């Protein structure tokens, strides 16, 4: 590892091992996410996707490294840039594409769209900036109260890092020493605003007051995985901790943002050619003799084919029925009022 930056900690993650099975999982999943997101951009340009579309290209190491470090009882809540996290919780790209296109086979039955995808133990994307942090804190309280042995992981972006609700949630998490790990995905720009233009303290991992923090190279899968492992164990023993993942999005803030009014083409190209997380992991795996270039290329080719096929399947999926409009609004299905269901014409 390069040396981690630590706050209120005497030591951080110190070593890491990677076997071939984990390398295959990581590379396949990162390629899967990359192709899925690029395909989503294509579907948007074909006008098959409407509304918002926030892509995860460039940040794949964070989602995959996180998933590799979780226990079965752990839970995750995230921001609206949530497609990749849905995938690592076993949502297929078909279900993601279907959701983006409003089909009933989607991850949220076609009603959530880009910002609202869910899966067991993944409490979804949150459309309100920073709104997932109190939710994640509540999940941490549930883990402690029910004695599950689980940890609640909550992801938010650098653009949300100054939200007041985050500090309120942190205060309660530390007061009760909840098993909570807060992960700031710092991709350097909140929409089009660089961190130094909106934050007096740009060392976001130090902003938890009494809560310790670690700054992590979020482009390196192994750094992410070990930081999450370390933080999980810390949270179970001592209470909340903050991770700042230094990452980068290759696309703009959303699909409608070219991403060039606040950063240069040269900056983007440099990050793509020198800091691409898939490239960095591929290089590491080959250098350590875990896999050959051909094995990795075969994974990429087969994964791209799988995702492309699922996109075509999603295009053919049906739209939801009108009756679906009123489901999942409350835990208990809505009853008829004066003999009429909410989706029936009066």
Automatic annotation (TrEMBL):
Residues 29-321 form the Dehydrogenase E1 component domain. The keyword Transit peptide applies. GO terms for biological process: pyruvate decarboxylation to acetyl-CoA. Its EC number is 1.2.4.1. Keywords: Oxidoreductase, Pyruvate, Thiamine pyrophosphate, Transit peptide. It catalyses: N(6)-[(R)-lipoyl]-L-lysyl-[protein] + pyruvate + H(+) = N(6)-[(R)-S(8)-acetyldihydrolipoyl]-L-lysyl-[protein] + CO2. It holds the Pfam family E1_dh. Its cofactor is thiamine diphosphate. One of its GO terms (molecular function) is pyruvate dehydrogenase (acetyl-transferring) activity. It comes from the Eukaryota. InterPro entries: DH_E1 (IPR001017), PDH_E1_Alpha_Subunit (IPR050642), Pyrv_DH_E1_asu_subgrp-y (IPR017597), THDP-binding (IPR029061). The pyruvate dehydrogenase complex catalyzes the overall conversion of pyruvate to acetyl-CoA and CO(2). This is Pyruvate dehydrogenase E1 component subunit alpha. It comes from Acromyrmex echinatior.
